[in-house]
């Protein structure tokens, strides 16, 4: 029965062909383990791997390599986060951000401070803030006799803990190291649009993606080159006495399309204050005093003036998992902490508490919900316990599995490799780290040739002595190993 579909397609062949098919099935069954992936151990890499069926009881195990070994899962951590959040909040939960004030409105003037109370929305964007400002305008407010106060009291000031995020406080060349805040917007990042000038030799045209107001300094050193000259743009956000500065260098061709460049901000709450101030000005709402940041909860006397809800949790998880968005993941993890002034280790412990409530899970250590640190530790067996538990929850599983990617159709192009059986029968979440050592991890679900469900988890960790590990070195053997398991069952 292991190769039922393959045999049925070949029924019209001769008897000899049928015998050959049975031989191939037996061969596939014999190779249905992690023998190919396991060869990475010969290069010094540590592996924890396990694959098993979800309907076979004691005979469920298909293959394993030290399945209880504790290794770094990198961004496979986000699968734990998604499971914990769905169990805690439910798929339709929304996070609310609001404008509140303890002052009264008299003749269009708000007598007091206008407070933006961040609701821990991992996906808060400028579109949400525009709606918030428009709703404030419709409430009749035209002037604020006070300051705009951005309140991030839910988390307070979040310690950076990882090298990437700590270095990013002063300068950064990526968006994934953005600082965290319960009041952050646009994933804690600045977006600058770069377009060619009409004439070659002129500076490129640059500006913020979401604002006509010059909220930060843009040091534009990008030169326009003749058509078809190629486009190469480097960007770095630095923070100095001017505040955040986006430094752009490189070139763009006259016939190139405009490019959006994202870099993490120096302070997520300050970025929100700058963006909101610009929007209030554009809406014709004057704020008399300079903005400020607060980690204090608004007074109980504060009244809601306008509010905006996030997307449902199940939609937030699509972006968190598909794009492996570290900012969104860690903000959502901080939302799991029930007390104010949350820190990342507490967020990790909240996810640990969820996982350790699952029978048979075993040890788990999480210092973040994103997996951006190699200090996170779990086992392939533990990951599979969590995956199976979510599979058994019929009300949560559709939202959970939808956040994984099909290699054939996923947004991450590097997983589009291996045989078609792997690409079309697997739903996968990957994890990647390169420093201080290489981590390549993958976990998810598969459907066998007979339509049975299975789970798999693989973690490959290097050390200071192992060579660079490319994804092809992991996915190529893994895809063949999983294909053999899928066809044999």
UniProtKB/TrEMBL annotation:
EC no. given is: 3.4.16.4
Query: Which keywords does this chain's UniProt record carry?
Result: Carboxypeptidase, Hydrolase, Protease, Signal
The terms under GO molecular function for this entry are: serine-type D-Ala-D-Ala carboxypeptidase activity
- Residue span of the signal peptide, if any? 1-32
Q: Identify the Gene3D superfamilies for this entry.
A: D-Ala-D-Ala carboxypeptidase C, peptidase S13, DD-peptidase/beta-lactamase superfamily
Q: What class of enzyme is it?
A: hydrolase
The family classification in the record reads:
Belongs to the peptidase S13 family.
Name of the featured protein? D-alanyl-D-alanine carboxypeptidase/D-alanyl-D-alanine-endopeptidase
The gene coding this protein: dacB
């Amino acid at each position: 029965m292991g190769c039922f579909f393959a045999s049925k397609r070949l029924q019209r062949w001769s008897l000899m062909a049928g015998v050959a098919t049975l031989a191939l099935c037996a061969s596939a069954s014999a190779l249905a383990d992690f023998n190919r992936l396991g060869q990475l151990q010969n290069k010094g890499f540590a592996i924890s791997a396990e694959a098993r069926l979800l309907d076979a009881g004691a005979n469920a195990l298909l293959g394993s390599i030290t399945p209880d070994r504790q290794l770094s899962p990198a961004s496979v951590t986000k699968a734990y986060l998604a499971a914990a959040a769905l169990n805690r909040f439910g798929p339709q939960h929304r996070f609310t951000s609001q404008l509140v004030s303890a002052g009264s409105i008299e003749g269009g003037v708000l007598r007091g401070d206008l407070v933006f109370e961040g609701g821990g929305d991992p996906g808060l964007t400028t579109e949400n803030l525009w709606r918030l400002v428009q709703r404030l305008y419709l409430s009749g407010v035209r002037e604020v006799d006070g300051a705009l106060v951005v309140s991030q009291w839910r988390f307070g000031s979040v310690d950076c803990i990882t090298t990437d995020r700590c270095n990013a406080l002063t300068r950064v060349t990526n968006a994934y190291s953005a600082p965290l805040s319960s009041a952050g917007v646009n994933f804690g990042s600045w977006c600058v649009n770069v377009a060619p000038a009409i004439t070659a030799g002129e500076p490129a045209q640059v500006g913020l993606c979401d604002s006509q107001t010059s909220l930060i300094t843009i040091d534009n050193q990008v030169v326009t080159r003749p058509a078809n000259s190629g486009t190469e743009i480097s960007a770095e956000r630095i923070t100095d006495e001017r505040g955040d500065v986006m430094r752009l260098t490189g070139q763009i061709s006259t016939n190139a399309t405009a490019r959006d460049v994202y870099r993490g901000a120096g302070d997520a709450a300050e970025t929100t204050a700058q963006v909101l101030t610009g929007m209030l000005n554009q809406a014709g709402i004057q704020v008399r005093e300079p903005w400020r940041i607060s980690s204090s909860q608004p007074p109980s006397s504060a009244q809601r003036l306008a509010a905006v809800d996030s997307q449902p949790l199940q939609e937030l998880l699509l972006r968190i998992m598909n794009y492996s968005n570290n900012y969104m993941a860690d903000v959502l993890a901080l939302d799991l902490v029930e007390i104010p002034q949350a820190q990342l280790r507490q967020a990790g412990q909240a996810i640990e508490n969820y996982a350790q409530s699952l029978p048979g899970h075993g040890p788990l250590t999480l210092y973040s919900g994103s997996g951006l640190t190699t200090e996170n530790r779990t086992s392939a067996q533990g990951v599979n316990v969590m995956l199976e538990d979510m599979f058994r929850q019929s009300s949560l599983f559709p939202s959970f599995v939808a956040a994984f990617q099909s290699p054939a159709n996923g947004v991450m192009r590097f997983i589009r490799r291996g045989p078609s059986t792997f690409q079309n029968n697997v739903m996968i979440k990957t994890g990647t780290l390169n420093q201080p050592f290489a981590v390549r991890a993958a976990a998810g679900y598969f459907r066998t040739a007979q339509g049975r469900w299975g789970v798999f988890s693989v973690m490959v960790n290097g050390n200071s002595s192992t060579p660079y590990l490319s994804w092809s070195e992991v996915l190529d053997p893994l895809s063949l190993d999983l294909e053999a398991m899928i066809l044999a069952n």
